[in-house]
Write a sequence for this structure.
């Protein structure tokens, strides 16, 4: 994997536009609009409901973390870590197995 880079947003848009070139008027601009709309829908629904499913990929979920006591790694001193809400991505089983096949 050394030296390989993930696709940029522009490259993803180009791939979508090429893939759906047979669909009339599906340009790079239309592909960009679809990707932007999907992202904004995911954000809005995760805020509103607490979860959003990307079919075949996974699920964005809001997770509430409790307050806890941690340690300062430099001094070893106990510190209080406040409660907070975080966003996590739970990868779908089918997606995981397609990328990294399970051991037999």
């Amino acid at each position: 994997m050394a030296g390989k880079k993930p696709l940029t947003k522009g490259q993803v848009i180009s791939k979508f536009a090429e893939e759906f070139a047979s669909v009339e008027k599906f340009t790079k601009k239309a592909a960009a609009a679809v990707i932007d709309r999907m992202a904004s829908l995911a954000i809005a629904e995760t805020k509103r409901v607490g979860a959003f499913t990307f079919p075949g990929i996974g699920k964005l979920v809001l997770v509430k973390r409790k307050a806890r006591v941690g340690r300062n790694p430099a001094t070893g001193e106990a510190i209080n870590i406040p409660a907070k809400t975080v966003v996590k991505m739970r990868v779908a089983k089918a997606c995981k197995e397609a990328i990294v096949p399970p051991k037999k």
Remarks:
- The first strand starts at residue 51 and ends at 54.
- The chain has a mean pLDDT of 91.
